[in-house]
Amino acid sequence: MGSCQRCNNCCRSHLILVAPQDVARLESGTGKLANSFVEMIDDRQPRERTEPAFTFNSEKKQLLTLKKSETNSCIFFNGEGCGVYAHRPFLCRAYPFQLGEKGELAGLKERACNNKWFPAGEEANQYLSDTKTYAQQLGDYKKAVEKWEKIQNKGKNKKLQISGFIEFIKK
């Protein structure tokens, strides 16, 4: 049992994959355009999570992530914590948990946390709610990526800018 100790290792050591809803919320909350804080990187396998990878202006599968700072931390990490906490991605809200096979809250095998912990009571309910929301967002994102892939396979929209892909997936 216990709570997050706010060690911030997740902010400093992991890629933060984002869904379209996260991008829209961050744009609204920060007043910045998405291309100032997101980037596309080559897919990395194996991955414990199932965020969709997609083809974008190349043959390689790509992932949409928050940019990293010069210190290799999340671009929104301010040295003490999340600088956009109220608008943070649902991956961050759910970390280090995922939905289990029966829809329950389950810990990830790989964690950045200094100590293993599991929430209780209202905190557990909030993590479960955030994890379910993230799973729903991923489902919507996967559908958008499938549509994108069909368009890409037809040869349309080649050499789009990252902003074009982001606008497409936010629809």
Explain what this protein looks like in three dimensions:
The structure is a single chain. With about 170 residues, the chain is of the alpha+beta class. The chain has helices at about 10-15, 20-30, 90-95, 120-155, 160-170; strands at about 40, 55, 60-65, 95-100, 105. Strand 2 (about 55) and strand 3 (about 60-65) form a beta hairpin. Helix 4 (about 120-155) crosses helix 5. The longest helix has about 35 residues, at about 120-155. The N and C termini lie far apart (about 40 Å). The mean pLDDT is about 85.
Keywords:
single chain; 171 residues; alpha+beta; three-stranded antiparallel beta sheet; two-stranded antiparallel ribbon; 5 helices; 5 strands; 37% helix; globular
Mean pLDDT: 85
Helical stretch tally? 5
Kindly report how far apart the N and C termini lie.
40 Å
Largest sheet: 3 strands, antiparallel
How many E strands? 5
Oligomeric grouping of the chains: single chain
Helix content: 25-40%
- Unreliable spans are none
Into which percentage range does the β-strand content fall? 5-15%
Order of helices and strands: HHEEEHEEHH
